[in-house]
Design a protein that fits this description.
Oligomer: single chain
Largest sheet: 4 strands, antiparallel
Strand order of the largest sheet: 1-56-55-54
Shape: elongated
Mean pLDDT: 91
Length: 623
Amino acid sequence: MFLKRNLTFLLLSLTAIFYSGCFSSKDDNTTMNETLNYTLNQEIPSSKGVFAVNGDNTKVATANKYGKVILYDKSSKKWLTESEDRENDDVNVIKFSFDNKKIVTGGIDQRVKVWNVDTTTPAILQSMKVGGEVSDIIVLKDGKSAIIANSTSEIKSYDIEKGIQINSFNGHTDKVNSLDFSSDETKFVSASDDMTAKVWTTTSTGGALMTLTGHSGAVKDAVFNPSDSQEVMTVSSDKSLKIWDLKTNTVKVEKKDFADEVVKCAFSIDGTKVAAALKNNKIIVLNKSDLSILKEFDDCMSTVNTMVFSDTSDLMVGADDGMIRNYNTTTLTKDSVIGGAFTQAYSIAYAGNNEVVAGYYDGTVRIWNILTGECISYVKVSDSKIYGVDYNAAAGLISSASEDGSVKLWSYPDLKLQKTLAGNEKQVRSAVFSKDGTKIVSAGWDRKARLYDVATGTLLRTFAEHTDILYYASFNSDGTKVITAGWDRNVKIWSINSDTSIGTYKIHDSQINSAVFTPDDKLIVTAGMDGTSRVYDYTEEKDMYNFKKHDSSVTSAFTNSAGTRVITAGNDKAIKIWDMASGEGIKSFTDFDYKVYNAQFSPSGSRVAACFEDGSIRSWDEK
């Protein structure tokens, strides 16, 4: 009997050593020893696509949907900093002062704010209520005053240092849409829904200098020619563009046959070209002299908010999709895209160490270079939310899983549709490739996981034992098994050759958001709505570690490629990294304002990236 007991003890000891040597079966691990140092490499911000360029064309300022102000350095290609203060609502307009040390913002909350950007973090200097949703602002050269238009017919000038009104410019009878200065800074032009544009002096007290009439619809934008202060361009919902001679108050040249309403316009700095943005999102570059079309760009995915020439040939366009596109009007090509998204970023996947694929609630998939902050490629998948994305190098494909029930495969990096995988009956939460890229498994709200052949798009098998919605499904390392995680609080493992699961595990006392195999396939890592992530030995059916440092639902949990670390993200606005040898927390990121939906290690493991409720994506390098 003694011998038998000792043999049993020996066998149990050898088993413990076998499972990674240093694993202990702790049921409750709450240690957080900060032993890692990470430096923020890049933040791809949440953005409304409203922006301004400073006078020396070195920085871009934009704002997110929560009103935070963010600066981008064009030379280093880095998003530099964001303000700590928030507006109460969306920002409609943002402008630099002439000395580039301040910016002025106006928003839906009827406030204009003046920010000091000559510091490490933009800070509010002045905030004033202006009596209507702010539609445009021009800052005078003295940097102390500004002219402001709002959603009523009012135009007013303010002392922006003291926050007091100076003057009113009366004459429009409907909403004022835009304002612009003349190059000699003696006049400004306003565009209104009352179908007119008006020219004013900055000190006008007796009404406008002149009224430009002739449009049969709302005038959406009006701008001065920067090389000729006697020329103004107007665009309208009547699908026309007009260039006016202010000396005679007559139209010099016009184009009336655009395919849709014209919402924005801009002169090139040398005054030889013009650009127009249509309501159907097309960007058109034209010769100024005869308004002949030089190029149409159709890659913009939503309404244009801002359009400016930042130098002789560089046309910058900001849109509701959050991105700021740069077009070269000399070569007539798209140069680059910066900015972010004006919607939630729900899922990410690394495509190499320097690129991240992201899926957004606006139905788009975008590929970002996290070194430069540039968007490499993007596609509008549908009008439904994208819940899951994945990238596979062997297949050269990206997958998207959508609220509309679709799973689609896209070429990398140009995002051309290759296949649509049929069979899902409700929204799909994830679509993950096998390591060799030959298979893909989806998980959806119809409580089923589906296995597909990537080459043919054929549905191979349906796994249908879960009794509540599925949030995640993935493969083991050789693609012979699938693991599924559901809101029925079960994790199941399946052979790809059978419709019947080979194991069911009750790991959490809550719904489960994700489950993956460790790279050696010996353990599984889960993320639960109970605020924990578990490392679970499914052979012995016991917890190895129970990571309990999140204060609310853990939205994702993944290992690095070596299987030595776990990264978790949570609705508690935190990211945590855990050591698989000791079970201790070794890094915690907690200074966020928004929920973290997904966090991943790069293939090399030296970089991490995460996507957030506000639409931003952040990347850190281990130092």
